[in-house]
Amino acid sequence: CESLVKLPCLNHLASLDSLHLEGCCSLKKFPELPKNISFLNLHETGIEEVPDSIEHLTGLEMLFLSYTRVKNVSTRISKLESLWLLDLSHCSIAEFPETPINLRELRLPGTEIEEVPSRFDCQSSLTLLDLSGTSITTVDVASLVIRFENLEHLKINYCDNLELLSEVPPNLSYLEAHGCTSLEKVTFIDQNLFEVPNGIFMIFSDCFNFNKDSIDNIEETAMFKVGAQVERWISLWESGCESQSLFLCFPGNEISANKFEFQSLNSSINLKIAPNWRIGGRFLAFAICLVADLTNCSHYKDTERICEYQLKATSGGNEKFKTKWSDRQWRDFESDLEFKGEHVLIMFNDNMVKKDKDYEEASFEFHIKGQNSWVKDRFDDIKVKKCGVHVFYVDEDQFGEMSNGESDEDQIDETSSDASDEDQEMCNIEEMSKDVSYVEEDIPDPIALRKRRKPN
C-alpha cells in the first residue's frame, strides 16, 4: 500500500480492535481511530508526528511507530493508561518521550536522543528500555531505576558515544551494552540495598575501552550476585526455589586470581575440595569463568556453554553432572550481535550447587558450541582457551541457627576456612603436582560479605 496517502476518519468503527498499516510510506497523517482500538502498527509509514488527539485512544495497548518520520510525540500520550508497549525505533525524535503510567516496554533504538533525563514528573511501570544506537554519553542507571522502579531490562548496544555507565543497581536483571566502543567506566550501587534477581544476564562485549577498575567492578559484582543466589537457593532448599542463574561477558583474556582460585590454561580443570571439619553438613557451590574467542559467534543461530563436571567422594564413589547456558533462555537477547576477539565469561546456575557427600575432588570439562544457521542439527566447537573455578562452602545448618539470633560472623566463614592451614597446604601441593594452578591467598566469599536475611 505504498500509494496510500490518506485514510478516511475511522472513529465510528467501534468494533475495530487492530489496524495494520505497516509499509504505507506515503501516509503522513496520524489516522483518526475509535477510542477502543488496542493494536496499531504504523511501522515504515510516512507519519511525522504523534498529535494531541492520541489521548482519545484510551483502549490502545500497543503502538508501533518504528522507522517512521516521527519527530514529535505529544505529551498527552502519557494519558493512555492501557498502553503497555511503545516502539519508536529509528525515528527522528530527539527528546525522551513522556511515558504512560502502565507502559512496560519502551523501544527507542536508533533515535536521536542524546540524554536520558535524570528527573521525571510521574512514576511508571516500565520494565524494558531500549536505547541502543543512540548518541547518549552517560547513563545514570540509578536515576532510571528511581524513575522506573520496575526496570529489569536495559539495552544500550552500539552507543558509540557512551563513556560512563554509573550506579548500576543489583536488581537490574538484564543489561546489554554490546559494542559501546567509548565506554570506559562502569560503577555499581551498594549491593546490599537491593534484592538480587533470580536470573541475571549482563554483557559488555566489544567494549574494548574499559579501564581496569571497571573490569574489577564487574567481577566483584558478579561474585556478589552469585553469592546471593547461592544463599537464596540453599535457604529454600527443602521448600523449593525459583531457578537461579547468572551470565556475564566482557572483553579480555585474563581470569582474576582473586576471584577464581583454581585455574587452567585449557578447557578442563581438576581441583581438591577442602575437608569439612565441622560437625554438621554443608553445601558446595561452583562459579565458573571461561576465556574464549567469540569472533564467529554471530554466525550461529544459538550458542551453548556447557559444563560437565564430576565429584569424587572419599569413599571412592563418583557423581557426574551437566549444565549449560544457552542464548535461547534469554528472550530478548539478539544472538546475531557481532563479536570481536577474546572475551571473559562468568557463569553460574543452581545446578552448580550440591549437598556435600564428603567429596574430596572435582573435575570440570567446558565446551562452547554454536548451532549452525545453515546446516540442521550441526554444532561447531568454539575453543575454550582458559577456565577457572571458585568454590563456595556453605554450612547446612547456618540458616536455622541464624533464626536463633546468632550473628553473620558466627555462621559464615571465608572460602578456605573449612580446612586447616596444614590441610590447605597439602591441597596446594597436590594440585601443583597435577599441573593445576591454585592461588594460596584467602579468597573472600561474597556470601560472607553481604548482610543476610532470615529465610521465610
Automatic annotation (TrEMBL):
Keyword set includes Repeat: yes
Ranges annotated as biased composition (Acidic residues): 406-425
GO cellular component, one term: cytoplasm
Record domain C-JID: where: 259-397
Keywords noted in UniProt: Leucine-rich repeat, Repeat
Region (Disordered): 400-456
Domain At1g61320/AtMIF1 LRR: from-to ranges: 104-194
Domain of life: Eukaryota
Classification via InterPro entries: C-JID, LRR_At1g61320_AtMIF1, LRR_dom_sf, LRR_domain-containing
Claim: Repeat is one of the keywords in the record: yes
PANTHER family: LEUCINE-RICH REPEAT-CONTAINING PROTEIN, PTHR48051
Protein name, UniProt field: Uncharacterized protein
Origin species: Gossypium trilobum
